[in-house]
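Appendix B, record 7
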Amino acid sequence: MSLKITDLSSLQSFLASKDNTVNNVYISDIPQVCKDFPCLLGIDEAGRGPVLGPMVYGTAFCPLNEATLPDSLGCADSKALTEESRDEIFTKICENRKIGWGVEVIAPTSICNSMLSRQKYSLNQVSMDAAINLIKGALEAGVNVSHVYVDTVGPPEKYQAYLKGLFPQLGVTVAKKADSTYPIVSAASICAKVTRDHALKVWAFGEELEVGREDFGSGYPGDPNTKKFLVQWRDPVFGYPQLVRFSWATASEALKEAYHVDWEENEDSAPIGNTSITAFFKMIFSHHGV
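Structure tokens (predicted):
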């Protein structure tokens, strides 16, 4: 049975109990009013840009007639709030019986595997799929969703049309800076950001490194502690621990700088006038009339 998240302590317990190399989803208990009455549902992310740690997509939902509830709880764009303020607001969200929430924690390994796969799978598509999963999760849990508000990735008109095609029964608004425009998206933003912050605090290194949050910082490329971590924990064979998004240019360039290899040319390794392997096989097939 999955742990129920009711405060910051249980959030950390939930995150610490999960395998951080795979994606994990959590949907809170659904308030009865969110089943009985049409609801607004907001979606936003945290951790899109960092080179370390997960990206987290968050959702929050409340009845249409409680649209100002997130405001009364202090919700605002999570980036404009202090960590302490975000934690306090998140606790209020957990305690309130007129608002529900959920998150998808997208593992760094999952992000890298998606972006480096043979079939192009961009970070925007990863983001859209997470948003879709949360909408589906809320609907399946019994939330009476009426209208969805999403902070965009890419052109908002295209994204909105895409979601509308998948959920024709719902009103859909996709907008830039939705986290500072729509209170329900602000609430989702806080749930996402708080979850990411605490995921980093309890991060368990499968590589058994003795490293604390203060050693790798916020995960953003400009953070001095993050820069130091990327230099200190480069392995000549395995590269980086799984906390690192090795598909990020910041990480790949750091590895190139540390382990640049110059190959010596062997003049005796190939005859003069050596043909390409493709040309060689064409010659063979032609000779045999293939």
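Remarks on this record: The chain has a mean pLDDT of 88. DSSP finds twelve helices and six strands in the chain.
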